[in-house]
Design brief:
Length: about 450
């Protein structure tokens, strides 16, 4: 695979995987589904309380718990899956499995109404598992297809494709949701449910491009290990032992965990906050999320350029500090205009922090290692556990205090912890450079 690094056709095909599945992230987790879910689960008789298999929840808290459970399942599964993929060199098989799981689950959301709440929430969770599971293997391709000097740009390219593809489908769905009369639609629940179906079809359709072009993976087969049920966790422990000796890598993972708790939660609850707390109309929320996606394209590429000038860690420190300040501002937001301005700033740094985090980690992985998928398993497990912790704490605080605003305080603390860890990372990076310099001087 080394000879095929930086192949434009392969990189473009890899980026199309983001094009395919980012429609889920925009339509299902960020715009139409949260608004539709909040509307149909808020009733005159029960307010924002719903019954899920006989247990009462605040509607938005239930959705966040479902997402947290989905990401916890992926965090537990990915060590086994990535180990198997490393040994057999068939990670594309797993990408296909999770893609089909996510796409079919989105299609099944077409049948989601209040009377089928349990089905809807389960399919919502399964779609999240499909999305997150596919990304485990998608991310692990980055060091295989791009050399270290190209990984920032290639990572940004993937996110850019994702934003563009998702916006195109969102606009199509937007027409059905806002102008159902153009198509003779009288059932107002039909346009959003149709959107969920279109997401599934778009997802599985465009995923065929990377499935056709990407290599199946770099084999590192070990029959004895493969027979062990626990081999995935053994592999993960082996990688962790390597990481513990890599001071900068370990510091980065700690920082990434804390600021991801904030970033991912903000992205997943922003629409619910706007609809439930600020009572903003669905059409306005969808429009502003679309603007965020377009701004995020520029943000991902801008951060890539800044990283070449100022270094990855310095840019991450600045971006995380900005995220913390935005959370503080969000606590005091009371009007739609304030929310939209804040959302535009979020869009600028949203794609940048995701893209830069992935490429930074990719650079820290030992080059030409056969365990690339297992190393990225650490990255993905860290991110998934961060999402679980972030969503669960957000939902719990909302249920406990009755207000999403109080949950925002927790998000702010996550970013501050992440910022503190990044500063420690900067110090560790500096100490490593000094140590290497002294070693060279002594050798001379």
């Amino acid at each position: 695979m080394n000879g095929n690094k930086n192949n434009k056709k392969v990189i473009r095909a890899w980026a199309f995987f983001d094009w395919a599945n980012s429609s889920y992230n925009l339509v299902i987790t960020s715009t139409i589904f949260p608004a539709y879910y909040s509307i149909i689960t808020t009733t005159i008789a029960h307010g924002d309380k719903v019954s899920f298999f006989g247990i009462s929840f605040v509607n938005t808290a239930l959705a966040n718990y479902a997402l947290a459970a989905a990401y916890l399942i992926i965090a537990l599964m990915s060590p086994v899956l990535t180990s198997m993929a490393d040994h057999k060199g068939n990670k594309k098989v797993y990408m296909k499995f999770f893609t089909w799981l996510g796409a079919v689950s989105c299609c099944c959301l077409f049948f989601f109404k209040l009377e089928t709440l349990e089905l809807g929430v389960i399919c919502f969770a399964l779609a999240a598992i499909g999305y997150a599971g596919g990304f485990v293997f998608y991310n692990s391709y980055l060091p295989e297809i791009a050399s270290p000097d190209k990984q920032d740009a290639v990572s940004a390219k993937g996110f850019s494709y994702g934003y563009i593809g998702s916006v195109i489908l969102q606009l199509i769905c937007f027409v059905f949701v806002l102008k159902p009369e153009w198509f003779g639609i009288t059932d107002l629940s039909f346009p959003p449910r149709l959107s969920f179906l279109l997401v599934g079809l778009w997802w599985i359709g465009f995923a065929q491009i990377p499935f056709k072009v990407l290599p199946k993976g770099s084999p590192n087969f070990n029959a004895a290990e493969q027979r062990k049920i626990s081999s995935g966790f053994i592999e993960l422990q082996k990688v962790w032992r390597q990481i513990k000796k890599m001071t900068v890598m370990k510091s980065f993972l700690y920082a990434f965990f804390f600021y991801s708790m904030g970033v991912q939660t903000v992205m997943l609850v922003a629409t619910s906050f706007g609809e439930k707390v600020l009572h903003l109309p669905t059409s306005s929320l969808i429009a502003v999320i679309l603007i965020i996606q377009l701004v995020a394209i520029a943000g991902a590429n801008l951060m890539s350029r800044f990283s070449r000038i100022y270094g990855n860690v310095n840019v991450l420190i600045a971006v995380v500090l900005l995220w913390a300040l935005m959370c503080i501002c969000a606590y005091f937001v009371t009007t739609g205009t304030q929310f939209y301005i804040l959302a535009a700033i979020v869009g600028l740094v949203m794609g940048g922090i995701q893209s830069l985090s992935r490429s930074t980690y990719s650079k820290l992985i030992p080059q030409n290692t056969a365990d690339a998928a297992s190393f990225f398993s650490f990255y993905d497990v860290t991110e998934k556990l961060a999402i679980v912790a972030g969503l669960a704490s957000f939902a719990y605080i909302e249920e406990l205090t009755g207000s999403m605003r109080n949950s925002i305080i927790a998000l702010t603390s996550f970013f501050i912890l992440g910022l503190f860890m990044l500063l420690k990372l900067k110090r560790a990076e500096y100490n490593l450079i000094v140590c290497q310099t002294n070693t060279r001087v002594n050798n001379i």
